[in-house]
Design a protein that fits this description.
Structural class: mainly alpha
Radius of gyration: 15 Å
Largest sheet: none
Mean pLDDT: 87
Number of strands: 0
Distance between the termini: 29 Å
Oligomer: single chain
Length: about 110
């Protein structure tokens, strides 16, 4: 049976460039540069480019990075609209998925 991890619910393509960069920075700080490069399967040059905004971090790299964070860390890093988009409450067109609101309220209570 497959485990259901919190990061599987995150739509990495909905995250903004800044959020992706902050996620990579947190993983680099948490694991150290060498282990982060290994865990993310990227080169040192690619990491530099992603962290300094030269290139946008690919969704699959951000997804691999999320696997090394706790959900609490993700919530500290990704705020507001980015988080709502990433978990599907706000659609890519900017509309709200009202079907998820009752589920969110039920979880909160």
């Amino acid at each position: 049976m497959l485990a259901n991890h919190w990061y599987d619910r995150v739509n990495t393509s909905a995250l903004g460039d800044d959020a992706g960069r902050l996620i990579l920075k947190r993983v680099k700080r948490k694991l150290g540069l060498t282990k982060a490069l290994e865990a993310l399967a990227i080169s040192k040059g690619a990491m530099y480019n992603y962290l300094h905004g030269v290139r946008r971090a690919p969704d699959e790299v951000v997804y691999r990075a999320l696997q090394h964070l706790e959900e609490r860390e993700f919530n500290e890093i990704v705020k507001g609209i980015d988080r709502l988009r990433a978990v599907g409450i706000i659609r890519e067109d900017g509309s709200i998925d009202y079907s998820l609101i009752p589920q969110a309220i039920a979880l909160a209570t």
